[in-house]
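Exercise 4. Each item below gives a protein and its sequence. For each, produce the structure-token representation.

Item: Lipoprotein (Nonomuraea composti).
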Amino acid sequence: MKKALAVAAAAATLLSTAPAQAATPDPVRAVRQQFVAGHGVKFSEALIVERKGDKQKLVSISGTYAFGPSGVVASEGTLSERLTEDKTTLHFRTVGRRLYFKGDDLPEGKTWMRVDSDAFKTPLAVQPVDILRLPQLKGLLSHTTSVRNGAYRGSVTAKQARKLGGDRAPAGYDFRLSTGSSGLPTNLRTQEITDRTTVSVYDDTRYSDWGHEVTITDPPDHEVIDMADIVDSTFGETLEEILELADSAVAAGRR
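Answer:
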């Protein structure tokens, strides 16, 4: 009896002194801590079609997001589309709800065109969910079915997808969100749930350089012209066509 008590006491001592397992970092908390004015994150994302190992990027976007205390307040980067034989690339900037595109065919003295944010479903993101909006990130993670080495995997139904991302997500999808040791996202891949086996269409976004200093402001007013003022111009017509084609490509990739 004394021996049994001694063994039990020794086991209790070992358990009480064993190092505690480190808790898995919370991605939502990790992202929230990055929301500091003057800081940001770099990103690159693409809508990819893969057939028998052959990959093609239909739409790609890369650039930088700038943060404020509540989340993304501005962005700047390039949008490229390969929906036709001629690849088109546009430089864009967003500040608050204002969207600008840089153009070469603008009136003399003008460098940027300001776009009515309600005029188009501007394809400045291809993902069906925006993980830099904390409620959407939290909602996505709530559908996790497995976590391994910082990678969260799961599935979202069409109804759940619309609840998370609104019109941005008309269909259900599988997801894999990879995170680093601090819990910050490094990669998000979503693929629509489909029965097709010969063609794979998915969205892939990579995040890097979290917390780097960045400042993105509106272009100088004298360099800006409103789209309504040049809607019949060559650049205005080209931009409208590109945005419609890119929006159609994103939609097609999710059907």
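Check: The longest helix spans residues 234-253.
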